[in-house]
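Subject: design request, 311 residues
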């Protein structure tokens, strides 16, 4: 067809190979052979077939050590996901696409969930257009099959700048808000560390008050934008007035520390901006209790949504 259309001559391997279709989001899961494909397909379908009676999980005390005490250090959020979910229950979708957000089907105490999490190792957790598309479509998938959604938030917000705007950021990231507003499944948000700007609101279904609960780990920090950037912009004149670069750096660090204290999770909870600050080891219990407290789902027949978008 390509050659017949006068568009050139190509080998079959050049037309849409896996190396292209996985990073661009066409392929949900890449497997090594047919046997693994059958196993993964069965696992995928199992999340839509109800809870399991038997399950195991990691020692939940491990969660207390997975987010570094140094707020400037990155970490692998997949270790957090593996620890929260039942052992062996994590099935990640579109791993090579929209890497700023991780989307996975998981189980917690045997119950199937959809889980999405910011990836601090990509753009510091900032949400770009591909990540926003990935998250919005994943919420549609979960809603269509009545899977409750657990969101693990650690983001400095949406990606900004001229290059980001060339990708139609406004159009793409808005999908997260519009889609979240259309779903009816239970939604839970746990802030692991950063909860900044509209990106954090998007990870909470549009608002910190939108989920059935929004809680934070003690490492949680909040603000309209990243603390360092807020201090540089808000106190630019004051900092420029200090001639000694050492003193200027000391003043900058002092202001950042003050902003951090004001935006700590415990302060947010004291003003009812979030529901609570929890021991990370209690995360699973919070999620299960939250699901039990959710209003019962009315029985229905037929499809819940007319379609699940392909993007």
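Subject: RE: design request

Done. Sequence follows.
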């Amino acid at each position: 067809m390509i050659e017949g259309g006068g568009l050139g001559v190509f080998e079959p391997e050049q037309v849409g190979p896996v190396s292209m279709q996985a990073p661009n989001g066409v392929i949900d899961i890449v497997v090594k052979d047919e046997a693994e494909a059958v196993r993964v397909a069965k696992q995928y379908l199992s999340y839509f077939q109800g809870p399991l009676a038997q399950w195991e999980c990691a020692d939940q005390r491990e969660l207390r050590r997975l987010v570094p005490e140094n707020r400037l250090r990155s970490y692998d959020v997949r270790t957090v996901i593996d620890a929260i979910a039942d052992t062996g229950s994590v099935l990640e979708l579109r791993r090579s696409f929209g890497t700023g957000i991780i989307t996975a089907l998981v189980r917690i105490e045997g119950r199937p969930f959809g889980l999405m999490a910011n990836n601090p190792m990509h753009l510091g957790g900032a949400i770009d257009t591909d990540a926003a598309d990935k998250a919005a479509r994943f919420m549609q998938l979960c809603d269509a099959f009545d899977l409750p959604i657990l969101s693990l938030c650690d983001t400095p917000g949406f990606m900004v700048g001229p290059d980001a705007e060339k990708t139609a950021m406004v159009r793409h990231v808005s999908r997260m808000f519009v889609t979240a507003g259309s779903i009816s499944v239970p939604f839970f948000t746990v802030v692991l560390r950063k909860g900044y700007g509209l990106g954090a609101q998007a990870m909470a279904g549009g608002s910190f008050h939108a989920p059935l609960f929004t809680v934070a780990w003690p490492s949680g920090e909040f603000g309209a934008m990243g603390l360092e950037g807020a201090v540089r912009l808000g106190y630019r004149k004051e900092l420029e007035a200090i001639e000694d670069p050492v003193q200027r750096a000391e003043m900058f660090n002092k202001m950042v520390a003050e902003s951090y204290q004001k935006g700590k999770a415990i302060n947010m909870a004291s003003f009812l901006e979030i529901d609570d600050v929890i021991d990370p080891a209690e995360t699973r219990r919070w999620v299960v209790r939250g699901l039990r407290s959710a209003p019962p789902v009315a029985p229905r027949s037929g499809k819940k949504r007319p379609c699940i978008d392909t993007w």
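The first strand starts at residue 91 and ends at 93.
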